[in-house]
Specification:
The structure holds 2 protein chains of 2 kinds. By secondary structure, chain A is an alpha+beta fold. Chain A is built from 4 helices and 10 strands. Helices cover 64% and strands 0% of the residues of chain B. Chain B has 15 helices and no strands. The two termini of chain B are 30 Å apart. Classes of the chains: A alpha+beta, B mainly alpha.
Amino acid sequence: LRRPPAPTRSQLRNVALVCALTLLVAAVFAPDAFAHLLTPQSGGSANANRISNLYDVTLYIAIVIFIGVEGTLLYTLVRFRKRKGRVPVQIHGNTRLEIGWTVGAAVVLIALAVLTFAELHSIRTPDASGPNGLSVGDGAELTSDDAIKPPKGPYITIQVNGQQYIWRFTYLGFGKLADQLDDPYTYYHMYVPTNTTVELKVVSQDVVHSWWIPDLGGKVQAVPGYANWTWFNIPKPATYSGQCAFLCGEGHARMKALVTALPPKQWLAWLHTLEAELKANKAGGAAGRAALQNRTGSAAVENP
Amino acid sequence: MATTTLTPVPQIVVDHVERESHGLMGWLTTTDHKRIGILYMVTSFVFFIVGGVEALMLRLQLGLANNDLISPQTYNELFTLHGSTMIFLFVVPMMAGLGNYFVPLMIGARDVAFPRLNAISYWLFLAGAIVFYASIFWTPSAAGWIATVPLSESTYSPAGGVDAWIYLIHLTGLGSLLGAINFFVTIANMRAPGMTWSRLPLFVWSILTYALLLIVALPVIAAAVTMLLLDRHFGTHFYDPAQGGSVLLWQNLFWFFGHPEVYVMVLPAFGVISEVLPVFARKPIFGYKAIAASTILIAFLGLLTWIHHLFTTPTPVVVLIFAMIASFLIAVPTGVKIFNWIGTLWQGSIEFRTPLIFAVSAIALFTIGGITGVFLAIFPVDWQLNDTYFVVAHLHFVLIGGSVFGIFAAIYYWFPKMTGRMLSEALGRLSCGLMFVGTLVTFLIQHSLGLDGMPRRVYEYDNVGHLQLYNQISTVGSWILAAGVLVTVINVARSLKSGATAGPDPWKANTLEWFVPSPPPENNFDVIPRVRSLEPMKDIRREVERHSSDPRTPAPATTVPAPSETTVSV
């Protein structure tokens, strides 16, 4: 049996070139639909974009390292395959070379760490609200003693509460009472004003959940007994979706959430409608309880 | 003339020799490290198949958007079973099996230090497996292999499945702990004369590190699950925030064990790769000391990085930074290993036998898992990737690429030693090819699934974007991977009956296990050869050659391993 002749070096080079070009062309002209083949979702809020930038830089470095390592491995396997007359070189190591690649690996990682530190502050600390955001007169806050550093300028705080298997959003400080017990709330669908920094205080009332709207930044776990913080600022009216990212039980896959950003004026209008609705519901509930109390004669009916 | 004083080598001393039991009783009562090793390997391989079938069922459910083939509860139970099985009942005990069989042979010992303790380790492992799998007849745990509180507390998981899982951890953990102590004592005390630490085979280094990691990490998980058990049944509140307990305590304790566990699973596979490459490249290992040192360093750093599993929890940023730096640091010794392996192949004369193909595939695949690990170590990036299919892809490249391919390399490399028969090369290549392609098809696309917003541990998804297409690619890949594994099963079954005879040293390998007949006699060595280098078999072969070319000098006794009776020389 005769072996086909081994490919010459120039043939191999041509094949590699064609492969690389194809990949490049595919990457450049890939339809938008395949945008997330290699990069995370972003675009809803600046922090998500910054994470995406950091990811992109890491990806470029990773691709170089990947091609370098796998390419060298493949080349070694082809080049040094067993052939008649080949004598394996009996060496035990090369201290200089070994120190070299140890330092090389360390340098790449130091570069990545420096990049992370450069981006970290802007990802973690909320941006200031835009000029067209919700104003202080309309209920936005200016100061706070929250765990994360508050942004300069007006912002609002929404408490995100995880429970099996639904998210509840409480718009903190928008009620009339000082103890915030009548703050308006919604389930599943969160509404926020555009151009306004929104701080999220993420809590859980039963098991661990994880809040995640991919376009609006990273995850934060909702851990019973702790408050966790994140933020976003949506520049244009839009709706983003996400879902619970930490196994929370049977209904985990259906624990979804929507976030809709409205211009501040529309958002205020929506808030008033919500408040009226909640008020009506509350009154209806009170009337129902009173009726029940009259009918049964019980001294008190527990507020569910 | 200076006289050399010989330091006495500890040896097994017996007052009488018991007759060997045969048949079933022989297997049930054995204290022979080789038989116990085979028990470990066969049992854990059975669980590999079981865990694999569970994975195939999970992939089938995800093959269609909003599929209702499997109910949500069953789906959660299946991935809990799959994760727990692969980790506690396949990879860790498989490494224990390989270590059991080959550590004494490689260091020139006649058994492990505590043979009866060794048997107890195996039976504890089997007991844990049986208790855990018995729960499938009632309600198995659906809390995932990480069993995070409060979901695993009795309020949210009232059924006994979580308790069965706790006993799985307790029983297999105790077995592993005893086994680890046994390995450590054996390696520290029972090496052949002349086998200094700098002549210890790299696989033995990796088992030593495996043992150290288990000894450090297992007590922590034992404490954690004991507290969970107390919470569930005896009214304590270790993890109950309403009563002053802490949910994050569980996550910290669990991952303090869970992350070193990754290195427990992957370092012995690295050890196998470090044994296989020099044999088939016909070249000494490149940078022996660097590889041995990197093994220890990875293990040490691996104990400092558990926080990177907690990047999205309410933990102070300074702690996250520490975990990120520690995780970065691990990439350095890991990279060193990969470079040294390529250095070993470089300028060699590479024979593409199946063990080498598996070992090289392991390097190629593990590299992908290693690189994606760097993404996950950068904690702001992890905030996007955490708990998505990106992580699933990453961990499978690490554990299939590293551990499974390493284990298969070990099977193909050592099967001739264990059975005296060769495996088919053609089937081996086919198996490796299918598994390699299967792993790439199944898991590469899962990175994109995660980037496209699909969290892990969900039983269904809406068909937005390309989620369904990506999932279908992954499902097809899982069947290719399964076919690859099946080919090896067939190969083993065929060769057990009709494989070609192997002889003591079919690969012309370097380490002492190839000095004894295949399969080795019960006492391993009649004469324990003196070790003069890292590659004692090379020395022995050279010596034999020298003597056979010069017929006037008789061959040295040490080079004639005779199959022997059950006597133990004292």
